[in-house]
Write a structure and sequence with these properties.
Layout lengths: L1 H32 L4 E4 L2 E4 L2 H12 L3 E3 L2 H4 L10 H6 L5 E5 L5 H9 L4 E6 L2 H13 L5 E5 L14 E7 L15 H8 L2 E11 L2 H13 L4 E5 L17 H8 L5 E7 L12 E2 L16 E2 L1
Parallel strand pairs: 3-6, 4-5, 4-7, 5-6, 7-8
Antiparallel strand pairs: 1-2, 8-10, 9-10, 11-12
Helix pairs in contact: 2-6
């Protein structure tokens, strides 16, 4: 019986070794002969769908899309830095960024409303960005551009005081790590490198954690607040901007969640400090998934 079990175990091992070797050979063949993007996940090969490939091909040809992820930005200079208005927009209008723009609904929507401003949507997800980039191109919007890059290096692409406003629309609250949170002092210091003194920052979110954290951060640093509400669509605020709803925002509204909004200014003077408070974590996540950890609060 023991010999029988050993034989079965040996067969299993040979089968696993064969699978691993086949994956390795196939991956090597793909890297040499096939141009299709590929990812690995737990030794499984995952190919991008044809739709994504076509979208990335489109993006490479779009004149208003600039693609500079980490791997590219580290090896080349970005000549548009400090020259966005002169070399691309061909005007002197204020520049507004949407960081984590997703499908670009706000970038395109705001661009259509305000022809006297220039809008740049920023995200690393090119397949999502394609939606807004394509719409802007089809509509001939000369005041809209897109930058595909990591927001962690956003200060590499804009010169001091080149940007007037920043929109943060439904950003991941990053409840576990403050340095990844787009309203943390870590990012505020980055924004100071290119945002005009007292430039505007807009936060629109479904996340109570994100909103509460940002409120504490603003209070801790005495940043001037122009408007704040925990229920935007019942706040009495009259603004055309309320007519723009992102794909994810509509999901939250359909689930009966309040949309929170805050508009504040970021002065350049004074050192910024993180708020030392514990904040209750959100009880939900996208697509009806529960929160990731067993923790109830975080800073």
């Amino acid at each position: 019986m023991r010999q029988f079990l050993n034989n079965i175990e040996n067969r299993k091992r040979r089968k696993i070794d064969l699978q691993v070797n086949c994956r390795s050979i196939f991956f090597l063949f793909h890297r040499i002969f096939l141009p299709l993007p590929v990812e690995t996940n737990n030794d499984r090969l995952i190919f991008m769908g044809k739709g994504k490939l076509e979208k990335f091909a489109d993006m490479r040809e779009y004149p208003h899309v600039f693609e500079y992820p980490y791997s590219v930005a580290d090896n080349v200079t970005f000549d548009m830095k400090g020259n966005w208005n002169r070399d691309f927009f061909k005007n002197d209008n204020p520049i507004v960024l949407e960081l984590g723009c997703g499908r670009g609904e706000y970038t395109v929507g705001l661009g259509g409303m305000y022809s006297d401003k220039n809008f740049i949507g920023v995200d690393i997800k090119g397949a999502r960005m394609w939606t807004g980039a394509t719409e802007a191109l089809k509509n001939g919007m000369k005041n809209v551009a897109f930058l595909r890059t990591n927001i962690e290096i956003i200060d590499r692409f804009f010169a001091p005081s080149e940007v007037s406003e920043i929109w943060l629309t439904f950003s991941d609250p990053q409840m576990k790590k403050v340095t990844k949170r787009l309203t943390s002092t870590y990012f505020m210091e980055r924004y100071r490198k290119f945002l005009k003194p007292d430039g505007l920052i807009h936060l629109k979110t479904d996340s109570n954690f994100m909103f509460t954290y940002t409120r504490y951060m603003v209070e801790e640093n005495k940043l001037p607040v122009e408007f704040m509400t925990e229920d935007l669509y019942h706040s009495g605020l009259v603004d055309d901007i309320l007519g723009i709803r992102t794909y994810y925002e509509q999901q939250w509204l359909d689930r009966g969640l309040n949309i929170k909004y805050m508009k504040f200014r970021l002065p350049h003077e004074k050192e910024l400090h993180e708020p030392d408070v514990e904040i209750e974590l959100d009880e939900y996540r996208s697509y009806n998934r529960s929160k990731r950890s067993g923790l109830k609060t975080s800073k």
